[in-house]
Amino acid sequence: MKKIAVVAHDSKKQVLLNWIEEHFDALKNHTFIATGTTGTLIKERFADIEIEIKLSGPLGGDQQIGSLIATGEIDMLIFFTDPMTAMPHDVDVKALTRLAVVYNVPTASNRATADYLVTSPHFNDDYQQQDNDYSDYLARFEEDKNL
After folding, report:
1. Theoretical Cys-Cys bridge with 59: which of 14, 41, 55, 138, CB 3.0 to 4.6 Å?
2. Strands laid side by side in the 107-108 sheet
3. Integer CA distances (angstroms), 53 to 17, 36, 40, 137, in order
4. For position 121, what pLDDT does the model report?
């Protein structure tokens, strides 16, 4: 069972709900973690899905999910973004997506990529992401700290 973080900007929430409905059979046995409004909408529409709801994104929900990524508690991030609308918490969104890259978490920012992820042969496997090697970075950090 995978832990899937789901987030959607306001104009993409219906797209996310439609996507979940389309892939419900593949998704129903997995656990979801979502930001506030997105999670509430999913819970209302799909009572059979196990979901943990965090704060709204602008109030810290994106960062809560980011911390779960950093501690290895998220297997996949589905984040339907709206590239045409300015977000007051854009720095939080960037931090969340950056952590997904740092920790090599499969991420979909649109429906097409999300389709690819849930139809991948790895979706129901015990797929182990390969960790990125940051040993050189950490070594430089330690050297700088000791100067």
Report:
1. 55
2. 50-53, 31-34, 3-8, 76-80, 107-108
3. 15, 6, 7, 34
4. 92
Note whether 145 and 114 are within 8 A (CB).
no
Query: Cβ contacts of residue 134 below 8 Å, gap of 6+?
Result: 102
Q: In terms of Cα–Cα distance, which of 28, 132, 15, 34 is closest to 74?
A: 34
Give residue for tokens 């050189």: 136
* Active-site amino acid positions: 62
Which residues are within 8 A (CB) of 15 and not within 5 positions of it... i.e. 6 or more apart?
8, 80, 111
DSSP 103: T
pLDDT for the residue 74: 97
Instruction: Provide the pLDDT for residue 128.
Output: 77
pLDDT at position 147 is 67
Phi, psi of 43 (to 5 degrees): -60, -40
Spans of the chain below 70 pLDDT? 147
Copy the structure tokens of residue 120: 């991948």
Domain locations in the chain as residue ranges? 3-146
User: Any idea which fold 3-146 has?
Assistant: Rossmann fold (3.40.50)
